[in-house]
Amino acid sequence: MIESPPILTIRRNFPRPTAAQVDAFRDVPTAFVCDAMGGQGAMASSIRAIGDGRDITCRAVGPALVADNGPAEILASLAALEISQPGDIIIAAMHGHRNVASADDLFCGMMKNKGIAGFVTDSEMRDYTAIVEVGLPVWCTGLNPNSPNGTGPGRVGFEASVGGRCVSSGDMIIADENGVVVVPFAQIDTVIEAVARVVEMEAELEAKVKGGVDSLLDLEEMIADGRAVIVD
């Protein structure tokens, strides 16, 4: 190359969901959000609440701020903290690289001081006991004491593939003990409307189950109209 590229590329002015849009997902389980999106939306199950949620109540809702670090790198995450807004969820993309910590208790403490709602990474973390003391909701792929690099290059405020999902800065993140769900920015209002219907249907079905219902299929009707066949 003729010139060395910058070690950081930062986009600060990406579209963000409104406070009302964030609040619409505040108490909604991730499973309901996935149902509202045709059964999809969750990151891979390898990204889970730290310690499987034993010692920290892991629940967070807010806009994604994507830090595309690359393998074993954290420079973009450090820069994301600098431009973050209270309520953001920092998404630290390390391209699925393992055997290195993407963050520790001190970085979690700084994120909490800044008002960050949660931290999600497709890599590992370290200093579990101290992270528990900080109390920041965290989702990661496990624990590892190895140190990352902070030399770049990195991109902040753009998009990255994390846990099998393309996440853009400004997308809605809903995360709980079951996993991390991504709602694309352009679909937020549509999903909010669909979630309301899912909540109603879940409440109706729950009432039926408590009332003694023990099946979801009308097997006799399915046999009668040919959708099911008995072969023995």
UniProtKB/TrEMBL annotation:
Coiled coil, from the record: none
Chain sites annotated for binding substrate: 126
Residues where Mg(2+) binds: 127
Keyword terms, alphabetized: Lyase, Magnesium, Metal-binding
Reaction(s) the record says it catalyses: 4-hydroxy-4-methyl-2-oxoglutarate = 2 pyruvate
SUPFAM superfamilies xref list: RraA-like (SSF89562)
Class of the enzyme per the UniProt entry, highest EC level: lyase
Ranges annotated as spanning the membrane: none
Cofactor: a divalent metal cation; Mg(2+)
Gene3D superfamilies assigned: Ribonuclease E inhibitor RraA/RraA-like
GO MF: 4-hydroxy-4-methyl-2-oxoglutarate aldolase activity; metal ion binding
Domain of life assignment: Bacteria
E.C. number: 4.1.3.17
GO BP: benzene-containing compound metabolic process; monocarboxylic acid catabolic process; phenol-containing compound catabolic process
Self-association and partners: Homohexamer.
Family: Belongs to the LigK/PcmE family.
Name listed for the protein in its UniProt record: Putative 4-hydroxy-4-methyl-2-oxoglutarate aldolase
Native species: Aliiruegeria lutimaris
